[in-house]
Specification:
Chain B: One of its GO terms (biological process) is cell surface receptor signaling pathway via JAK-STAT. Chain B: Keywords: Cytokine, Glycoprotein, Secreted, Signal. The complex is a heterodimer. Chain A is mainly beta. Chain A is built from 3 helices and 27 strands. Chain A folds into 3 domains: 91 residues, Immunoglobulin-like; 93 residues, Sandwich (Immunoglobulin-like), CATH 2.60.40.10; 104 residues, Immunoglobulins (Immunoglobulin-like, Sandwich), CATH 2.60.40.10. Chain B is 69% helix and 1% strand. The chains are: A mainly beta, B mainly alpha.
Chain lengths: 373, 222
């Protein structure tokens, strides 16, 4: 390491090419030419690439004050700011440098998907075409225009829904198809995606339902009642909404979806486990926009709301606990009664607890047949 | 560390908020005293120093080797001497008046802020842009803080570089490699200034205790 010294203009040396752009795998011969008033010679120089000294075997003196270096089959740039090719004097001092941009041209962006929030705006996202890296900084521009007429417009607000996304906040027309595409460009070229055609009305989504409340249904252990408000934008626009509910048990990651909720703003979930905490979410799909039969795009799910089903006092058996208790007390009393009757009443020997039991069995049987009708 | 950042952000906010209304009004300073503001500004320089370490690390990695090598020391070309250097003769530094000391800091950071903002507009990756803009916001707070102290002590603010980012007579680097060297030296100079400011504000702290300032304000009829 040398102490810094202030060097006066002009620069001590000049590298050629200065900051070139190259395709991966290409070769390069660079030259370092010393300024005439600089007291060094070609043999006093050496090269480094990204801090690593290049082998002297690749050097060639092209004159008393010019040293060249040959670089073959270049790999993609180590950093997007360019590889640092530096010409040094023997003592390590930096005389000049050149940034090499080695990479690939961009591939056309793919999978353009767009959605409009309440028909007010349009957000689109896409994926870069390259599976690997281009090694060069790539700029993406989303463009759009009304089909058949109108000039190209450029989207300005990027990264609103992830890295590869753009948001168009206003001046969008309804009932007219738009052409949308994405241009990717870097130092080595440009690639244009396929054009996507859409009508704003076909890609409408809205806010999730608000005020989602989940409550018990009386004492019923296997049911919960879900209630919500339709998203406010629904009032302003001529579309109806259909809803979807998903719910899961607290300690599970598997959601159960209720699909046929329709356009009501309440629903009862049944077949649930007693004494369990459930998480519930609701989402909304605006459809029948201006009377069309097409569905829109599902909104995000509402924030999860939790509620628990009640748990009965007795362990599984499903019997009504109060009725069971009554049964035991009544039976006991009857048994005592019949015992007393046997002792103190003559001629009622047929009366006994066994007869009572048989009567109970007959009672249950007749109940079943009645309910089956 | 997250806790370090929260402390730092809190200190920065205090400094910025307390000193914003202090230019040109003296309301905040009357209540706090310049002594307390100096302490806050000192804390802010320490916080910025901490922030700079991460920013510089990320930025130098973006520039690539040899810029991110620990012993890298390229020649300092004439064009790179655009910010008044923090390094100064020790006796000269000791002999600075409070006004001169504060003014030197104010001028340096105003300039550095300008250059950093230009960098912010050019830099490649989203992560770097995010870090840079965060750092610029904090640096802006420091400039305001120093200005606030100067106003509360009755010193005039040096004419700031309110014009275009590149002051007249300072060309942008003619090639990408020289630009990388300029960026390297900008970060180095920023680092040196923050080290120096800590010493400057430590010195000022001892010379301007709160009690003295209150007396001065009373004498001026506030």
């Amino acid at each position: 390491p040398i102490s810094p010294r202030s060097l006066s203009l002009p620069d001590p040396a000049v590298i050629s090419p200065q900051d070139p752009t190259l395709l991966i795998g290409s070769s390069l011969v660079a030259t370092c030419t010393l300024s005439p008033d600089f007291p060094l010679k070609a043999e006093d120089l050496y090269w480094t690439l990204n801090g690593r000294r290049l082998p002297a075997a690749s050097y060639a003196a092209l004159g008393p004050s010019t040293l060249s270096v040959a670089l073959a089959r270049l790999n993609g740039s180590r950093q997007q700011s360019g590889d640092n090719l530096v010409c040094h004097s023997r003592d390590g001092g930096i005389l000049a440098g050149s940034c090499l941009y080695v990479g690939l041209p961009p591939e056309k962006p793919v999978n353009i998907t767009c959605w409009s929030k309440n028909m007010k705006d349009l957000t689109c996202k896409w994926a870069p075409g390259t599976e690997g890296e281009t090694f060069l900084h790539t700029n993406y521009t989303l463009k759009y225009k009304r089909r058949w007429y109108g000039q190209d417009n450029t989207c300005q607000e990027y990264h609103t829904a992830g890295t590869y996304s753009c948001h168009i906040p206003k001046d969008l027309a309804l009932f007219t198809p738009y052409e949308i595409w994405v241009e990717a460009s870097n130092r080595l070229g440009v690639a244009v995606s396929d054009v996507v055609m859409l009508d704003i009305l076909d890609v409408v989504t809205t806010d999730p339902p608000s005020d989602v409340h989940v409550s018990r249904v009386g004492d019923l252990e296997d049911q919960l009642s879900v209630r919500w408000s339709s998203p406010p934008a629904l009032k302003d626009f001529l579309f109806q909404a259909k809803y979807q509910i998903q719910y899961r048990v607290e300690d599970s990651s598997e959601w159960k979806v209720v699909d046929d909720v329709g356009n009501q703003t309440s629903c009862r979930l049944a077949g649930l486990r007693p004494g369990t905490v459930y998480f519930v979410q609701v989402r909304c799909n605006p459809f029948s926009i201006y009377g069309s039969k097409k569905a829109g795009i599902w909104s995000d799910w509402s924030n999860p709301t939790a509620a628990s089903t009640p748990r009965s006092e007795r362990v599984a058996g499903g019997c009504d606990p109060k009725a069971g208790e009554q049964n035991t007390t009544l039976r006991r009393e009857l048994k005592q009664f019949f015992g007393w009757v046997k002792k103190h009443a003559y001629g009622c020997s047929n009366l006994g607890i066994k007869l009572y039991d048989q009567w109970r069995v007959w009672l249950q049987k007749s109940h079943k047949t009645r309910n089956q009708v | 560390s997250p806790t370090g950042d929260s402390w730092g952000i809190f200190t920065f906010l205090c400094a910025a908020l307390c000193n914003l209304p202090a230019l040109p009004a003296l309301n905040c300073s009357e209540e706090l005293g310049a002594g307390q503001s100096i302490q806050q500004t000192y804390d802010l320089t320490r916080y910025l120093e901490h922030q700079l370490r991460t920013l510089a690390g990320t930025y130098l990695n973006y520039l690539g080797p040899p810029f991110n090598e620990p012993d890298f020391n390229p020649p300092r070309l004439a064009r790179a001497e655009r910010v008044p250097s923090a390094t100064v003769d020790l006796d000269l530094w000791r002999g600075l008046t409070d006004n001169a000391r504060l003014a030197a800091n104010y001028r340096a950071y105003s300039r550095l802020l300008c250059y950093l903002r230009v960098l912010d507009g050019q830099v490649g990756t989203a992560e770097l842009r995010h870090r840079l803009s965060h750092f610029c916001a904090s640096l802006q707070g420091l400039v305001l803080s120093i200005g606030g102290i100067m106003s509360s002590l009755g010193y005039p603010l040096p004419a700031g570089p309110a014009g275009p980012p590149a002051p007249p007579g300072m060309p942008t680097a003619p090639n990408d490699f020289l630009k990388k060297m300029d960026d390297f030296w900008l970060l180095k100079e920023l680092q040196t200034w923050l080290w120096r400011s800590a010493k400057d504000f430590n010195r000022l702290k001892k010379k301007v205790p709160p009690a003295v300032v209150t007396l001065q304000l009373e004498a001026r009829g506030f």
